[in-house]
């Protein structure tokens, strides 16, 4: 199972990757161990994004800063094939100041077929592939709106948050690389 099974046609796509001088098993372990507390840019941007939700009294406390980055992905994990890829997918209303309606939990086919207006379908995959010099760790995110009005609303939101979203991914890739390369010596 991969992103094509979740969001085959996207309105927005981001891709980041980095070659890490370490074997896939070490990169995989570090990706899954990386704690939110070790990513200052991600913490800052996440706090800014969460502020309206918390002020509205809708915030749910799900552990502290010791959670792993993959534990706080806002969409469920759909598939994992250690040490090669992990896939997340779901539907969201992220442009709504307080996060929108609670999304249903869907499997890959459910996300792909979801058509209720007012939502975006989101798929995100971390993939590890052998590369000259070690392991390529890549992250791809795909987003597709369910209707034209949502596509416009999300497009404006994405214009504002895409730089921060990409910065979070780059920070994550860099932190995994530093830890994995330190372990591999």
Give the mean pLDDT: 91
User: Compute the gyration radius: what is it?
Assistant: 17 Å
Beta percentage is 15-25%
Number of distinct beta strands:
5
CATH class: Alpha Beta
Q: What structural category do the secondary elements indicate?
A: alpha+beta
Largest sheet: 5 strands, antiparallel
Task: Outline the fold blueprint.
Layout: E1 12-20, H1 24-33, H2 40-55, E2 77-81, E3 85-92, H3 108-113, E4 120-131, E5 134-145, H4 148-184
Antiparallel strand pairs: 1-5, 2-3, 3-4, 4-5
Labels describing this entry:
single chain; 185 residues; alpha+beta; Alpha-D-Glucose-1,6-Bisphosphate, Chain A, domain 4; five-stranded antiparallel β-sheet; 4 helices; globular; Polyketide cyclase / dehydrase and lipid transport
Can you walk through the features of this model?
It contains 4 helices and 5 strands. It has 185 residues and is an alpha+beta fold. The protein is 37% helix and 25% strand. The chain has helices at 24-33, 40-55, 108-113, 148-184; strands at 12-20, 77-81, 85-92, 120-131, 134-145. It has a single domain, classed as Alpha-D-Glucose-1,6-Bisphosphate, Chain A, domain 4. Strand 4 and strand 5 (134-145) form a beta hairpin. This is Polyketide cyclase / dehydrase and lipid transport.
